[in-house]
Write a structure and sequence with these properties.
By secondary structure, the protein is mainly alpha-helical. It has seven helices and three strands.
Length: about 150
């Protein structure tokens, strides 16, 4: 692929993805490597798939395939748009990182089920407070009279 064509494609991808801010770290790396001409044949194929995806409306891939969990630039992890954790590379791609992401998703689902805000404080720092709470117990706590 010629330089002008790959740069034009990369610019269009960036335009459609908030200057690349909406791209997953892997996809941003793919765009960079395409512009620099460093891709193998399978890499060029992936770049073309990314281009088509961006033109149709880019959808950020799930982190480790876990629905609603994404990892953005800089390592920040989000659950349905709420920042819940930070995972550094390359650790985040290890088996241990995947297990931690799976546990994080379990916590987020649990917090949702009991009506508690999804954020780093509740998923990490104050998790023990919510870990054993059942949906009806939380409703009773919130519904109990104040005096």
């Amino acid at each position: 692929m010629e330089l002008k064509e790959r740069c034009d494609m990369a610019c269009k991808i960036l335009q459609k993805t908030n200057d690349g801010d909406d791209l997953s770290p892997d996809h941003l790396w793919l765009v960079q490597e395409a512009v620099n001409g460093h891709l193998t044949d399978p890499g060029w194929d992936a770049f073309k798939v990314l281009y088509d995806s961006a033109m149709k409306g880019y959808v950020h891939p799930w982190f480790h395939g876990i629905e609603h969990l994404i990892r953005r630039q800089g390592g920040y992890v989000y659950w349905k748009g709420a920042n819940v954790e930070h995972y550094d590379s390359p650790w985040c791609w290890t088996d241990e990182g995947k297990k931690a992401a799976e546990e994080l998703a379990v916590r987020c689902r649990h917090l949702e089920s009991i009506g508690v805000a999804i954020n780093t404080g509740n998923t990490i720092w104050h998790w023990e407070k919510y870990e054993g709470v059942k949906a009806n117990e939380n409703d009773k706590k919130e519904a109990s009279p104040a005096g």
